[in-house]
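agent: user wants the structure for Queuine tRNA-ribosyltransferase from Candidatus Neptunichlamydia vexilliferae. delegating to structure tool.
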Amino acid sequence: MSPFKFELLHTSTKSRARVGRIHTPHGIIDTPSFVAVGTNGTLKALDNEMVSSIGLQLMFCNTYHLLLQPGPEVIEKGGGIHRFINRNMPIITDSGGFQVFSLAYGSVADELKSKGTKKQGGSVVKINDDGVLFRSYRDGRSILLTPETSVKAQKAIGADIIIPFDELPPYHIKPEELARSLDRTHAWEKRSLDAHLEDPRGQAMYGVIHGGVDDALREKSCHFLRELPFDGFAIGGSMGKTKGQMVTMLSSLLPKLPEKAPNHLLGIADLESLKSCIPLGIDTFDSSYPTKAARHGTLLTREGGMKITRGKHSGEFEPIEKGCPCYTCKNYTRAYIHHLFKAKELTSMTLASIHNLHFMVELMQEYRQLIIDNKV
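agent: tool returned. relaying tokens verbatim.
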């Protein structure tokens, strides 16, 4: 029997927002939940003991980067990702598909500006129905990433939740090309699932729903993946050019997903999107935004983002936010953190990241209570 299980505890009477629990071999994830991104097996500027003490229940690691350094075989020899990075709570890994997109087209922001033109001289050598051939940015060696090799790597890494190999087409793509990409992704996901089921290892696999902002293709993807024995579903691909476009797409898609399976929104967890998407019924959200903002001196507060490097904070001998119980706010003042950023001390990034991550964990706890109270 699989150790993975989703419990739906309450659905709001005011919206489709819901509270649940995802059971994994390394603990429970209370939903809705924020998932921080630890690309290389760590959240930048934080060690995993600190991350666990903050209460982050699910952490996202990137298969593509771990494949290149230190390599899945090293992680497996080290006892799997949990033992290797010293984390006893749940971990999710992606397939490497997003990195294929960014290697070919640049970041999402760059792609939206470039109208879908491929980068010149990029690391991707070839994309076909078999998989993707690319050059390592570390040592230049050629690597073939396929559904089977992606799953093999994720098996060796040993995350609790894994993602099938998929293609992330750009926002600017012709409709016929988007349809072809969807068919390829479905074939890759089926191959990934087959490889996973040959050696489950107690891991769960989420199917990834694609189709861009085309409702018909999203529905087609949802119908195709629902017929396969995935443990949950992730929503990937282009979310549109604006948040409004994303919300419109998700509003149409979410009612088509199985109610008794968890769902995850890939790469989106800014505060505005959480406010819009939690009422739609999203269970988990991942994003590097809170920790990236922290490293650039933006601290999250109830009143909005605080740019701690501004001169007005140099004489404020109070915590980042009054009443915040995080380690940073309990021990340090705005004036000191301002000084650390101005002095370019690395500790500034650590203290800021602790606060922002704690802010996100507490925010999601509050959302869960609001849903239970039928206020969201």
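agent: one observation worth passing along. The domain at 5-287 is CATH 3.20.20.105 (TIM Barrel).
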